[in-house]
Amino acid sequence: MSWLPDDFVHPVYVPVPHTALHLRPIREADTALDYPAVMGSRERLWEIFGPAWAWPKETMTYEEDRVDLLRHEKEIAEHKSFNYALLDEEETAILGCVYIDPPERTGSDGEVSWWVVDDLAGGESERALDALVPQWIAADWPFQQPRYLGRDITWQDWLALPRAS
């Protein structure tokens, strides 16, 4: 049984209210935008995701990022997991990402996390994304018990939960 209904159609464009930003599924072709976003915010991202995902490595290369984005693109097409890039209006910069994944730990039917680049951290755009994501998940995704990693549960508490079967 899939973690999503067979007839589920994932959103392909999600405007972030009160900003000129939007979300769309990430693609391998985004590597030139993604790599500087990730590596430019790497230290803060490692503090968030490092203990759980061992990402992003200090030594991550452009090619490793490209391979990772290709994997994400394929997983999106197969509805295995989703990575949405946060982009400016012209799609000249990736400014963050939203991850929507099947549950790795017990107690939810979908796990959601997100980040913004250092330049947006603590600002209006991050607050707009923080407000949007739970509303968007509730409106457009078929979850009964989504879990917002690092938001409604700490990463440390999440890691302590039993693995989902």
What count of structural domains? 1
Question: What does the main sheet amount to?
Answer: 6 strands, mixed
Which stretches are low in confidence, meaning pLDDT under 50 for 5 or more residues running?
A: none
Based on CA atoms alone, the radius of gyration comes out at 15 Å
Structural class: alpha+beta
Range of strand content: 15-25%
Number of helices: 5
The third-level CATH topology is Aminopeptidase
Mean pLDDT: 97
* Share in helix: 25-40%
Keywords:
5 helices, six-stranded mixed beta sheet, Acyl_CoA_acyltransferase, Aminopeptidase, 165 residues, transferase, alpha+beta, transferase activity, N-acetyltransferase
Question: Can you summarize this structure?
Answer:
This protein has five helices and six strands; from the N terminus they run E-E-H-H-H-E-E-E-H-E-H.
Write the layout of secondary structure elements.
Layout: E1 14-15, E2 22-25, H1 31-40, H2 42-53, H3 62-77, E3 82-87, E4 94-101, E5 110-116, H4 124-140, E6 146-148, H5 155-160
Parallel strand pairs: 5-6
Antiparallel strand pairs: 1-2, 2-3, 3-4, 4-5
Helix pairs in contact: 1-3
Structure report:
With 165 residues, this protein is of the alpha+beta class. The chain has a single domain, classed as Gcn5-related N-acetyltransferase (GNAT) (Aminopeptidase, 3-Layer(aba) Sandwich), CATH 3.40.630.30. Helix content is 37%, strand content 18%. It has helices at residues 31-40, 42-53, 62-77, 124-140, 155-160, and strands at residues 14-15, 22-25, 82-87, 94-101, 110-116, 146-148. It has a 6-stranded mixed beta sheet with strand order 1-2-3-4-5-6, sandwiched between helices. A hairpin with an 8-residue loop joins strand 4 and strand 5 (110-116). The longest helix is centred in the C-terminal third of the chain and has 17 residues, at 124-140. The radius of gyration is 15 Å and the shape is globular. Keywords: Transferase. GO terms for molecular function: transferase activity. InterPro entries: Acyl_CoA_acyltransferase (IPR016181).
